[in-house]
């Protein structure tokens, strides 16, 4: 479905040579910003349905479990070679049963917790919204493909924030980055950069809903206030406040959710407005989609109409209905709750540590047996 | 043959073809397809903060821009010695080489064609909200079949984010728009249009139009040719950071421009003037440029395959090997 991204005028497309080979700029094919979005890597590589997302995350978790077991077996063989006596006596207790693998559900909760941490890291560095939003997007994409049993989320989070800052013109020297975050080493952060890029398939440009939000903010003013106010209690101030609320909504809900995978940035922006003030947003949508001018009353609709015109109205109505339905779905997705707790996350993090370094787990147990 | 990740991403470097500030460029082949490619290996050691910033920005923008007049990013890989490599389509010539090659004659239809292709590529960037910021003849690469492609997106960035400061230190000096010379922190796609306007002039003159010796001289050279901007023609110009103690040159008369660009038609001159308006808000945007009558006027733009590529003789590509 098509939603005008902003009030921006359409740009003319003249990218191709005409058939006879001569270059003429006169072919005017119009491309909307929505068409452009459909050519973005975000749309082509990173748009999924809820079912696809669930499936990818389950597959990532499965891949993580397999990797964990393989890592464990390798560590076990070398430990056995070093401590044959211990293994002869306690072999059946030194198996992969020692590993407390992370379940799919645990993994999601833990990742949610780290997402909230990313917000804090960004706040700590006073980073602009754009960096935070991009970091969040990178992180959520990374763990669609990989599991916490393959890459420790804390490390990935640091790398991603550092990388996002570099890509969004808020570059921080690696030294100052490390000194301001305790217990981090430059090598750990930089060591993961390429891995992250590769997982992102080098698609580093993220379209966030903030730009369309701004565009709609301007268009709300145009549609609802000019030439004269359409709603008696809606002024520039009201719309300004609504805009601020919607921006907070994007930061608090949308960016942390699956919405960016499932909806386009303008859809998310409109959903933010809709959820913050249904009445004003709905009025705007009706004006835009149903051509309900301030003076278009039922009486006009009662008049006998040209069938072509009524057909047109019909499709407009359908479009409006689909749009509202989409916005409502988007709101549900954005507001999906996933409660996390610091304690539980710390426990999962520790399990991850041993899953990623099984030799340490074995060493601990062997020590206990030989004591 | 199986096209799994490993075979798809194998390349051989054949020989070095150039070197820029932050990269060495090789001509090579993609092994499975035998496609000829340029491999830009990013120099390590220059940037100690992980992957090179210009390189990843170039990747960021090229990955989104698929257009006939923008260089294609074929792949990105890490070589065993941990160097980042960008695989680009191989483009053996650039506009600077041709401009300097005095044995190649430019017809006005050829110039029109290069200008048109540049504008198309740029239009695609701008409508994706990407500023190139470093347009100059040697970043306009030419394919063997005559297509012109915008390259070198190491300085590119996204625009349109409100409340964000940009750095005025972009665009190679000779192609730098007056708002940049004045140190403006907010600018738009108009800086790229200016650069294209100056390149357009250079194509007609066959020598750089505004070759300032340093940043101060650049102001002087620019305004001597195009007039010193005043509040009257450019409101609020005097509030820009570096706007002070300027020598005031009058705006050039049409006759003066006509004398300088003796071969240009009126329409060519009109378009150039609109691309090099001192006030960025008066400059044409890419859409307006592309719709300009100049492109409808006879002779029409030469078709790319009929454009001059390099002077005849010697099959050695006449590309300068060092930047
Ligand atoms: N796609 C390509 N095909 C063929 N040769 C290329 C290609 N890209 C670059 N080159 C060659 O490699 C040289 C270096 O290119 P690069 O883009 O790194 O830097 P530059 O633009 O010349 O200089 P700087 O980085 O200082 O701006 C170019 O001058 C050119 O000769």
In brief:
The complex is a heterodimer of chains A (371) and B (323). By secondary structure, chain A is mostly helical.
Portion in beta strands of chain A:
under 5%
Q: Report on the biggest sheet of chain A.
A: 2 strands, antiparallel
CATH class of the largest domain in chain A: Mainly Alpha
CATH fold group of the largest domain in chain B: Transferase(Phosphotransferase), domain 1
What's the overall average pLDDT of chain A, rounded? 87
Order of helices and strands of chain B: HEEEHEEEHHEEEEHHHHHH
Quaternary organisation: heterodimer
The proportion of residues forming helix of chain B, as a percent range, comes to 25-40%
How are the strands ordered across the major sheet of chain A? 1-2
Cα-atom Rg of chain A, whole angstroms?
Answer: 27 Å
Helix percentage of chain A: 55-70%
Strand content of chain B: 15-25%
Q: Largest interface, by Cβ-Cβ below 8 angstroms: which chains and how many residues each?
A: A-B, 42 and 47 residues
CATH class of the largest domain in chain B: Mainly Alpha
Whole-number count of domains of chain A: 2
Shape of chain A: elongated
Please state how the strands of the largest beta sheet of chain B are arranged side by side: 1-2-3-5-4
Number of helices of chain B: 10
Low-confidence stretches of chain B: 313-323
